[in-house]
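Objective 1b: paired records.
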Amino acid sequence: MINSLGIKKAPKDTKVVVAMSGGVDSSVVAALMKEAGYNVKILTGPNDPQYESKLEKIISDQSPLFIGFSVMTPQVNKAYELSKKVKNLSPNTPVVWGGFHPTIFPDETISNPNIDIVAYGEGASMILPLTEALQNNKPLDNVQGIMFKQYGETIRTEKPPLTELTDLPGIDWDLIDKDILENFIVRKNPIGDNVRSLPMLTGLG
């Protein structure tokens, strides 16, 4: 197999980076890719002070198949900045945006020169077809639920059907650095001071 960078790699040898916004959706997407045999790394941007240096190292050392950002509107400016950094470090690495903001504002998002692909709607429905297409240098036209740039034009594919929650895997906590995961934990909350909880935001219901 040859990935989108022209490197011969099987799925298990391909590093796919998910820049996580702290939500369930990107964790589920990463778990789906891991189940399919891809080597996945989650970086928790809002919670990891070493986030940018880790991203730079992965780009330098791993030649990732693509870099994915799960973005909410308050994170847009930083995500734009990081997308530009990715392109400066590795111009041929596709930058993929998903999450609430690009779903609500897909045209605005895809117009950014440092964003190659926008996933609108549920990432779980499109992530494996998209990854397989990039891995094998196949056209993206048949990947449902995305917008992408081709020969100066923006292509929008058909919206995929909703994914049943029962068909989705659970969150794979092994994909998140343990020290960062610990920082997620809220020790004081309305339930009680001795209860530890993990707040998550998801569009999956």
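Objective 1b, second protein:
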Amino acid sequence: MRDVFSLKYLPKKKREIISFSIYFFIFILLFLSDLLTKIFMYNALIDKKGMSFVAIPYLFDMTLVFNNGAAWNMLSDQRWLLATISVVGFLLFFYVFIFLFTKLKRADKIGVILAAAGSLGNLIDRMGFSFNAGIYKNGVIDFIQFHFWKSFPVFNLADTFLVLGVILLVISNVIYLIKQSGKSQKQIEASDLQDKLKDCEKNKSE
């Protein structure tokens, strides 16, 4: 029975528009989840700065910190440099998402929207800190801490999205290159076999 809810029965252009809209909606949800959790954690923990609260036993704690640099406090107080890096990162991923969407594999699409949402979240943080605006005036808001790895930098959802997105993109493209390499090798072997067969036929005819 024909599945009337399947996109594959729609014209290609409509499928692309619907697919893009779904991924863009997910991108917005990811960005908003990062923004809203920062606002919530700031209001909930601002009077308890530096104190840790168990979120998931043995896995994650909630600890409000304000980060003036990158991970492990690298580039501390280099506000505009970090803001510029965030702008470049977001524009790169967003460009790929907007203009190369139809050429991307599914895994790449997921990776790109994760990375783009994370980059935008970091961009808002950096710009807010650079202009001393609102909840960002003291630095980027981080609040997720590994319970079992206290020395690891406290992070936020934007960091998580960005890292997962980049990892997914790397894995996806490494797998693609491996497959392409295998196909190329098979093509070479097939070509060599055809050449040998032609040589055999030529020798027989002689």
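DSSP finds four helices and three strands in the chain. The first strand starts at residue 52 and ends at 56.
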